[in-house]
Amino acid sequence: MRLWFNRLFLNLPLLACLLVCSCNNENTTGVSEEEMSAYKSAMTLKNGDGDKKALALKDFISVINQRTDAPKSHLEVGLLYLDPAVGDPDPFSAIYHFKKYLDYVPDPKSDQARRVQGQIKRAKLVVTAQLPGDPYQTKGDSSLHLEELKRLRDENQQLRARLQQLTNRTEEFTLQDTPAEPSRPQVRTYKVRSGDTLFKIASSVYGDPSRWREIYEANRAPRRNENPMRNENDLKPGQELFIP
Fold it and tell me: Looking at the structure, do residues 49 and 130 belong to the same domain, yes or no?
């Protein structure tokens, strides 16, 4: 009896850990990355202020920890690690997640792959900018020639200037290789297909799954000849939705 009690006592930390993990992890079997609740939450928060972006970073990392294939979360995490609104940039972590995303890109020469490779270059420039003002001082060590020292210092200044140009750019970084969205009419509808969700519909019509709530809010109010949605899952094949 005493031996059994000792074994139980020694295994309590392991049992507690397993219990916490089972409570915190979402069942991802048969669920796409975009359909995970943590991913949906992160997509909604990522465009907010610094605190909301920090929460988005936490949710994206949660998705990565729960699945083996989370390329979009890796990309978003890389971008957030370079976002000064979240905190001091972490270029090394950003590079790691950008490279993990590229592992899932079938064509390394595609526009999307080139954009992510550009983000990796940007992260490397951040690393360079974080170096001391004169990282090449040798304090009496003559192993480096003066000409080489000058060349390295000049290169460092050029990289700093290039980083400043990239930081000042306001062009939005998009996740998909999509052409510029044409102007849409004031009123349009979408016919629901089998397997559709508001998340998928928002991704299809807007290119941004986080805008699903706009569609829900537009269709929950009573309108002529249509039944309002009772909840976000109240979708039937053939049903016409108003797209704001």
Answer: yes
- Model confidence, pTM: 0.47
Residue 75 covered by a domain = yes
Helices (H), 130-192: 146-168
Is residue 142 domain-resident? no
Range 62-71, long-range pairs (CB < 8 A, 24+ positions):
62/38, 63/33, 63/36, 63/38, 63/39, 66/25, 66/26, 66/28, 66/36, 66/38, 67/28, 67/33, 67/36, 69/33, 69/104, 70/33, 71/33, 71/100, 71/101, 71/103, 71/104, 71/105
Tally of structural domains, the chain: 2
User: What domain range is 219 assigned to?
Assistant: 188-243
Is residue 67 in some structural domain? Answer: yes
Kindly report, residue by residue over 13-27, the tens digit of the pLDDT.
444 444 444 444 566
